[in-house]
Description:
This protein has 282 residues and is mainly alpha-helical. The chain has helices at residues 3-13, 21-26, 31-39, 61-70, 76-79, 83-86, 91-97, 146-156, 161-173, 179-188, 195-205, 207-210, 214-234, 237-258, 260-281; strands spanning 18-20, 43-47, 50-53, 88-89, 108-112, 123-127, 135-138, 141-144. The longest helix is centred in the last third of the chain and has 22 residues, at 237-258.
Amino acid sequence: xxxxxxxxxxxxxxxxxxxxxxxxxxxxxxxxxxxxxxxxxxxxxxxxxxxxxxxxxxxxxxxxxxxxxxxxxxxxxxxxxxxxxxxxxxxxxxxxxxxxxxxxxxxxxxxxxxxxxxxxxxxxxxxxxxxxxxxxxxxxxxxxxxxxxxxxxxxxxxxxxxxxxxxxxxxxxxxxxxxxxxxxxxxxxxxxxxxxxxxxxxxxxxxxxxxxxxxxxxxxxxxxxxxxxxxxxxxxxxxxxxxxxxxxxxxxxxxxxxxxxxxxxxxxxxxxxxxxxxxxxx
Length: 282
C-alpha cells in the first residue's frame, strides 16, 4: 500500500472515517492521491472540502461532514474538548437526529457562539450560546437537547406551529421535555416571547401530563356512549346522569386539546400585532 494511502486511512480513522482537504494538506497528503482514491471508489465527497472513506459512510456522514467543514483545519478531538464552542447541531437538524416530529431538514443547522459566514448552500449557522444543561451528544456530535431544540424552533418562527406542536408531542410522549426549562428558554432569550405566548406553549407541553391524548379520549367517549344507551335500560337515573356528565367533560377536554394549535396561532398573531402597535408609537 502506498504511503500516502496509509496516511489517508490513518487520518480518517481519527474522526469517523472522514477528514477535510485542509487536514490532508497539513499531513502533506498529495491532492492528486485524494482524486485517484475518489476515482477508485475508495473515497467519497459528502460535502465540499470533506472526504469520507467509502466503507465508513453511514446515515450520520452528511451531518458530520458539515460539522467538520465549520473548522476545517482543526481535528474533531481538539474541537470537542470545548463542545459548546465547537458548533452544536441544532434546530431542524437536531430534531431530525433526535427523531422528533417530521420537519423538513433540507439544510444542516448549527449554533455557534460567534459570527460565522455560511457561504455554501445547505448550511445554516445560528449565532448563540448553548450551555451545558442544553447539550447532549449523539453520533459523537454535540447537539441541543429536545427541550432546547423545540425552544429554538419556536423562536425562529420558520415553521408552522402545528408542525412544531408535533415535536412537543413526540418529546413529551417520551418524557424528553422539560416544560419549565422550555418556559425559561422562550421567555428570557433575546427576541423571546411574551409570558402570555409562552404560557400557551407551556400548556401545550404539559398536555401529555394533564389530559388524555385525543385518540385515547375518543376511545373512552365511544365506550361511554355505548354505556349511555345501556344506562337508559339498566342504570338508575343518577348513574345515567353521571355518565352523561363524564361524556360532556371528555368532549370538552378533547376539543380543547385539538384546538391548542389554533390558540397558539392566535396568541402569536396578537403578539405580532402588539409589536407593530408599539413600533408605530415610537
